[in-house]
Write a structure and sequence with these properties.
mainly alpha, DNA Cyclobutane Dipyrimidine Photolyase, subunit A, domain 3, Rossmann fold
Length: 476
């Protein structure tokens, strides 16, 4: 008998290269997809409207793909524990499948659901899908988690990686009687962004769903990957994969990405091209490093990894913080980056490091303020990557060289030497001389004429002050 199986989607909004879904298909072709719009997540104060838009676009395509295969994606706006328990009881389900997550919220939620189902005799099948290597498989020689990236990369890069997983080719539908049951349990059509209480009118950098993610991967590999290491730090160039949201929501499988890098390595014609491809592989490893860190050290979500930073004397000036949020610091590269974030829901990675360093080292504001603001805006906002990046910038995290201070002027001169990025996002001062824009030395008269703020702090002075505070905590 072809028994009905529920596959619960979370951060794997795709049919292709989905380990848990493929494993379920080995047992039965009668698989129904499930997604719960969980109020416990949507009602948080760090949810970006742009991110919810990407989620809904991805769900729309996923539901269409299920229907093409003959089944459906059931959508509910309720607690997963409540919905899953009801579905299993009413549909007489014997097995459920889902892919695991590194976040502590997901871990606790999943354990509660698994415990409740196991008591009822339901078989729960879980798999690691969002990582090339799940955490317990990448450990140091002392059998402990890595806290420094470079040795992690050496180990991780040497391990054999799975190839993309085959997709289901045909699924069997629920019966009409079963559809009546799920309708009575609160099944809803896919809501709009406004239905959920969010507003985001701007286009996303990458449309949600498998198709857009796959097309972007193919474009990136064909035209950008061979120059990736050369171009990735220049924010005015289209030089990065822009697949961060696709990886966050799982609209593309990480095995698919890795397989593409191997194919490109096999076909590359020069050592330089090879180095560029490996540079992107290392970025995929950075993503996985932060995922492993959050899994093994869940306290990172709420505080610093380095003990000295747990009570760091941040100054936390709310007026300065608001100027940073609004892109009105008087430092053009910082303001351009914050405008990009506010208007698009995305920011170039080089600029993420610049603005994070500025908030923590120039404004001496707690990195958690910036981390939360990013999560309120980023359409690719991922807890592990965002937290890891912020703690790296704040010198509070896992880092072999913990004290880094970025000079906004030198960063501009090196990575936006013609002020192309600055002019794009700060049109009000685009007519100023390039030298003024990249150094940030805009005269008070010009600042007043173009309604642009003077610098809210002095970088050199703040740098000295931060170093004194840093020395005071690191030396006890």
């Amino acid at each position: 008998m072809n028994k009905t199986i529920i596959f619960w989607h979370r951060k794997d909004l795709r049919i292709k290269d989905n380990i848990g879904l493929a494993k379920a298909y080995e047992k039965s072709s009668k698989i129904v997809g499930l997604f719960c719009l969980d109020p416990a997540i949507l009602n948080r104060d760090d949810i970006a409207p742009a991110r919810v838009k990407y989620l809904l676009e991805s769900l729309e395509e996923l539901q269409a793909n299920y229907r093409k295969l003959g089944s459906d994606l059931l959508i509910f706006h309720d607690s997963p524990l409540k919905i899953i328990s009801s579905l299993i009881e009413e549909l007489k389900i014997e097995e459920i499948y889902w892919n695991l997550d590194v976040e502590s919220f997901a871990h606790q939620r999943d354990n509660l659901i698994k415990e409740a189902l196991t008591i009822k005799g339901i078989k729960v099948n879980t798999f690691w899908d969002q990582l090339l290597h799940y955490p317990e498989t990448i450990l140091s020689k002392t059998n402990t988690p890595y806290t420094v990236y470079t040795p992690f990369w050496r180990n991780w890069s040497q391990q054999t990686k799975l190839q993309p997983i085959l997709s289901p080719s045909r699924l069997s539908p629920l019966t009409q009687e079963e559809y009546k049951i799920v309708n009575n349990l609160g099944l809803i059509p896919l809501p709009t962004l406004e239905n959920l209480g969010f507003t985001w009118d701007n286009e996303l950098l990458l449309k949600g769903g498998e198709i857009a993610a796959q097309e972007r991967l193919e474009y990136f590999c064909s035209y950008l990957l061979s120059d990736y290491n050369d171009n990735r730090n220049f924010p005015y160039l289209d030089g990065t994969s822009q697949l961060s949201a696709a990886l966050k929501f799982g609209t593309i499988g990480v095995r698919t990405l890795w397989q593409n890098t191997l194919e490109e390595l096999e076909n590359c014609q020069s050592e330089e091209a090879r180095e560029n491809i490996i540079a992107w592989q290392k970025e995929l490893a950075w993503r996985e490093f932060y995922q492993h860190c959050l899994y093994f050290f869940p306290a990172l979500e709420n505080g610093a990894y380095r003990k000295q930073f747990q009570d760091f004397p941040w100054q936390n000036n709310e007026t300065l913080f608001q100027a940073w949020c609004d892109g009105k610091t008087g430092y053009p590269i910082v303001d351009a980056a914050m405008r990009q974030l506010n208007e698009t829901g995305w920011m170039h990675n080089r600029c993420r490091m610049i603005v994070a360093s500025f908030l923590t080292k120039d404004l001496i504001i707690d990195w958690r303020w910036g981390e939360k603001y990013f999560m309120q805006k980023l359409y690719d906002g991922d807890l592990a990557s965002n937290n890891g990046g912020w703690q790296w910038s704040a010198s509070s995290g896992m880092d072999a060289k913990p004290l880094r201070i970025f000079n906004p002027a030198s960063q501009s001169q090196k990575f936006d030497s013609e002020a192309e990025y600055i002019r794009q996002w700060l049109p009000e001062i685009s007519s100023l001389d390039t030298a003024d824009l990249v150094t940030g030395k805009i005269s008070p008269l010009d600042a007043q004429s173009y309604d642009y703020p003077l610098p809210i702090v002095d970088h050199n002075q703040q740098q000295r002050q931060f170093k004194l505070l840093y020395q005071s905590v690191t030396k006890g």
